[in-house]
């Protein structure tokens, strides 16, 4: 919240500088007023700057937040004067101060709000010279801090309906994919100069890397004269000449995939450029081939950087340069050519769509590290800059991050062929506990940092972020990890099944046996019927547990969104619809989460 208020206040100062209103009377805006006056009361000197916030809360008849420092200047036995122009706000979810400001929003000026004080209010407020604009601006900041929005779903005669602050709104969502843009090759075998600038929304301390991705087709690509420059100081942040000499290239750059997994790309250094040759791989399944620098770049928040290079390609296509910050095995994009997302959010704004969703970093850190919400905060601030009235529902990954999987190797999904998966099993109680705790903390943070823009949360997980078991479309089945076996035994025991303590997951051969199509023989395949019921409940209970944590984190006043319950979509699964885990929908719908 402190960072957010600082940034908003800086925007006020910048605008006042532009219109020559930085100084008013005898006091600079850098100082909080040393004296204040309220209607119906004598002027009081503040004991400390911290007294102003409690005073405003008292004067506006607001409950003071727990743990707030400072004390009100209004005497305890003196009531708020009846001449106060402010209306008491709803105690459950304060929204703002009726009649305080008239705000006009214009689609032609998406980043501009025009504020005016009603005349009746001006006639009631004593604007002493000792107070000046500082107190007005402080009051606006306090006002914004209390403007928490409530977004819920209610059942109505016409079906479920979204309500914002108690009013029904059109159920229109915008969803867009984040990420930078690409550079189009204008003409084959012709040198083309490329340059773009980007401003960092977070600090990257020796955790940055630059990636280049290329057309997935047979071609020859040359790159030269790469520079990454701090626009303010002119300092190069990437070693010069790294594309021009073999030693410099090998000191800075890497090909991915490494070793034998790289079936498509080779390189050589000649004529001051790196020459890449791409050939179609066996089986025509292209890996994620790219060129990336070592993870050691340092970039500073709020600084602007310019990346420039020259490229030549033998075919038409796109080159995609992108900067990342790597944290605990997760690559967070931090810069690149301008992508379409913010422009699309502007289109949603102009069309009157307020509910905005896009993928954002989950910021799930190891417990011994300090909480760091910079990644998700930056995306929300960028969205609000474009769409000041946006109601944002971040889509965040609820899958366990790499650092968690390294510490809980037994929880990694295991497939029938002995191959470990890339995700944690939902049957791991450690995973459920930890992801739920993180989601609750994330929701509380977003509610405090963006009270008037945070509209809900969308935890996304498992296959395609839609909460059906990972690799469900493939030929092999999973479930052969210890946590799933233990959960299976506990479930059988709760059902009163004999031999539950020694039960094993049904064999892959048994699970693939589908001589009757979707139907199972109750005599010969009873164990599969039981297992399929267990399989559905494990996924549904995971969804319910995470949803309950999000409800706690939002105090039930925001949307909690999941992709789950695809009852008609999964018959094409090779291993049967039940393998998806979406057929315990009633447990989700009937839950209290």
Could you explain how this protein is built, in words?
This protein has 593 residues and is of the alpha+beta class. It contains 13 helices and 29 strands. Helix 9 (429-449) runs parallel beside helix 12 (526-554). The longest helix has 29 residues, at 526-554. Residues 24-47 and 77-146 have low confidence and may be disordered.
- Using the CA coordinates, give the radius of gyration: 29 Å
Name the quaternary structure. Answer: single chain
What is the rounded distance between the termini?
Answer: 28 Å
Helix vs. strand class? alpha+beta
Helix content: 25-40%
Sheet-strand content, in percent, reads 15-25%
Strand count, sense and closure of the main sheet? 7 strands, antiparallel
The number of helical runs is 13
Given as residue ranges, the uncertain stretches (5+ residues, pLDDT < 50) are: 24-47, 77-146
Sum up the overall morphology in one term: globular
Number of strands: 29
Q: How confident is the prediction overall: mean pLDDT?
A: 81
Keywords:
593 residues; alpha+beta; seven-stranded antiparallel sheet; six-stranded parallel sheet
Fold blueprint:
Layout: H1 2-18, E1 23-24, E2 27-28, E3 35-36, E4 44-45, H2 52-59, E5 102-106, E6 109-116, H3 119-122, H4 132-145, E7 151-156, E8 159-164, E9 167-168, E10 173-176, E11 183-184, E12 192-199, E13 204-213, E14 219-230, H5 246-252, E15 253-256, E16 265-270, E17 273-278, E18 290-293, E19 297-299, E20 304-313, E21 318-327, E22 330-335, H6 341-350, E23 355-360, H7 374-386, E24 391-392, E25 395-397, H8 402-407, E26 412-414, E27 420-424, H9 429-449, E28 456-460, H10 482-494, H11 508-512, H12 526-554, E29 559-560, H13 585-589
Parallel strand pairs: 10-23, 23-24, 23-25, 25-28, 28-29
Antiparallel strand pairs: 1-2, 3-4, 5-6, 7-8, 8-9, 11-21, 12-20, 13-18, 13-19, 13-21, 14-17, 14-20, 15-18, 16-17, 21-22, 26-27
Helix pairs in contact: 9-12
């Amino acid at each position: 919240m402190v960072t957010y208020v600082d940034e908003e206040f800086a925007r006020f100062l910048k605008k006042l500088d532009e219109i020559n209103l930085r100084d008013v009377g005898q006091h600079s805006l850098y100082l909080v007023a040393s004296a204040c006056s309220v209607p119906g009361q004598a002027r009081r000197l503040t004991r400390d700057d911290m007294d102003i916030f409690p005073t405003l809360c008292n004067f506006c008849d607001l409950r003071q937040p727990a743990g707030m420092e400072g004390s009100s200047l209004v005497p305890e036995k003196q009531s708020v004067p009846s001449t106060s122009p402010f209306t008491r706000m709803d105690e459950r979810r304060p929204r703002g101060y009726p009649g305080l400001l008239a705000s006009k929003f214009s689609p032609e000026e998406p980043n501009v709000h025009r504020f005016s004080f009603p005349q009746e209010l001006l006639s009631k407020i004593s604007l002493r010279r000792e107070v000046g604009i500082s107190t007005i601006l402080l009051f606006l900041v306090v006002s914004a801090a209390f403007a928490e929005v409530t977004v819920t779903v209610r059942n109505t005669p016409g079906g479920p309906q979204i309500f914002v602050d108690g009013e029904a709104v059109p159920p229109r969502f915008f969803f867009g994919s984040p990420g930078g843009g690409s550079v189009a090759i204008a003409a084959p075998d012709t040198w083309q100069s490329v340059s773009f600038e980007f401003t960092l929304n977070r600090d990257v301390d020796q955790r940055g890397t630059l990636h280049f991705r290329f057309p997935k087709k047979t071609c020859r690509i040359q790159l030269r004269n790469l520079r990454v420059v701090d626009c303010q100081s002119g300092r190069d942040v990437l070693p010069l000449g790294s594309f021009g000499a073999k030693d410099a290239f090998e000191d800075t750059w890497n090909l991915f995939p490494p070793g034998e997994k790289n079936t498509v790309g080779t390189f050589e250094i000649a004529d001051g450029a790196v020459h890449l040759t791409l050939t179609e791989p066996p089986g025509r399944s292209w890996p994620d081939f790219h060129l990336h620098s070592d993870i050691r770049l340092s970039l500073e928040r709020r600084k602007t950087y310019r990346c420039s290079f020259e490229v030549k390609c033998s075919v038409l296509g796109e080159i995609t340069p992108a900067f990342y910050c790597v944290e605990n095995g997760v690559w967070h994009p931090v810069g690149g050519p301008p992508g379409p997302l913010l422009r699309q959010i502007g289109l949603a704004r102009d069309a009157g769509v307020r509910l905005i969703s896009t993928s954002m970093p989950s910021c799930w850190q190891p417990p011994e590290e300090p909480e760091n919400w910079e990644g998700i905060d930056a995306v929300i601030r960028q969205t609000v800059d474009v769409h000041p009235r946006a109601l944002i529902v971040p889509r965040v990954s609820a899958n366990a991050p790499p650092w968690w999987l390294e510490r809980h190797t037994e929880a990694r999904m295991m497939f029938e062929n002995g191959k470990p998966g890339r995700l944690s099993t939902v049957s791991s109680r450690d995973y459920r506990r930890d992801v739920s705790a993180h989601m609750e903390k994330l929701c509380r943070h977003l509610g405090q940092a963006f009270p008037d823009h945070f509209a809900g949360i969308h935890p996304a997980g498992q296959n395609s972020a839609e909460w059906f078991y990972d690799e469900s479309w493939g030929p092999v089945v999973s479930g052969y990890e210890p946590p799933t076996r233990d959960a299976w035994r506990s479930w059988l025991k709760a059902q009163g099944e004999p031999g539950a303590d020694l039960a094993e997951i049904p064999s892959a051969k048994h699970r693939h046996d589908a001589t009757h199509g979707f139907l199972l023989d109750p005599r010969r395949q009873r164990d599969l019927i039981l297992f399929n019921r267990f399989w559905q409940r494990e996924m549904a209970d995971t969804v319910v547990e995470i949803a309950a944590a999000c409800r706690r984190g939002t105090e039930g006043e925001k949307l909690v969104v999941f992709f789950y319950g695809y009852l008609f979509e999964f018959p094409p699964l090779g291993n049967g619809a039940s393998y998806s885990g979406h057929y315990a929908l009633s447990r989700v719908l009937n839950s209290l989460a």
